[in-house]
Amino acid sequence: MIVSPSILSADFLNLGRDVEMLNESQAEWIHFDVMDGMFVPNISFGLPVLQHVNKVAKKVLDVHLMIEDPDRYIDAFQQAGAEILTVHHEACRHLHRTIQRIHQSGMKAGVSLNPHTPVSVLEEVIEDIDVVLLMSVNPGFGGQKFIERTYDKVKQLKEMITARGSKAMIEIDGGVNLETGAKLKACGVDVVVAGSFVFNSENPSETIASLKAL
């Protein structure tokens, strides 16, 4: 599996140090949780942080927009360095158009689903998506407990992807650790986002290596 550590849990007084650690680690992606205080009950960070991290990061910048009306910022995030841009199904009035715009800007397009949203809502666009990000906690805060129902959603999504001939990768965000990570890999997950589990550990680089070794 690809490991995408979320810098939402990094030390923002030493963010450059933490990004350098990720550069030297086995992580392939760096995950950005962008929150606006409206779509989710929290405010995190936005374009300036991504722009500065992009100057030093050597890994794929995996940006997750937990914001209302994300179409307003597609080009801005591409210019700031995003390589994968994930929007929420629940936040997009015209999802297919949004996916097209992300691709036209030169980025890979991801679509995220909240825990209450069934994977069936993606049936009409699954061939157009590069990444499906399933939230395994309610979005907005780090350190939450993994929602067990996620395993079944992964299996359902995997069946849809296979049946429709889609090349979409399955990404999971929330409550990932060695136990849940192993089960997710067995279900066919391609990418795991890990925030507090990585950055709150004694040796984040070794923790990333442990996830990679699952």
Description of the structure:
The protein is α/β, with parallel strands linked by helices and 214 residues long. The protein has a single domain (2-212), classed as Alpha-Beta Barrel (TIM Barrel). It has eight helices and eight strands, in the order E-H-E-H-E-H-E-H-E-E-H-E-H-E-H-H. The chain has an eight-stranded parallel β-sheet. Strand 2, helix 2 (47-56) and strand 3 (60-66) form a beta-alpha-beta unit. Helix 2 packs parallel to helix 3 (74-80). The model has no long low-confidence stretch (mean pLDDT 96).
Any descriptors?
alpha/beta; 8 helices; 214 residues; TIM Barrel
The CATH architecture can be given as: Alpha-Beta Barrel
How many domains, as an integer?
Answer: 1
Would you report the number of β strands? Answer: 8
Averaged pLDDT, please?
Answer: 96
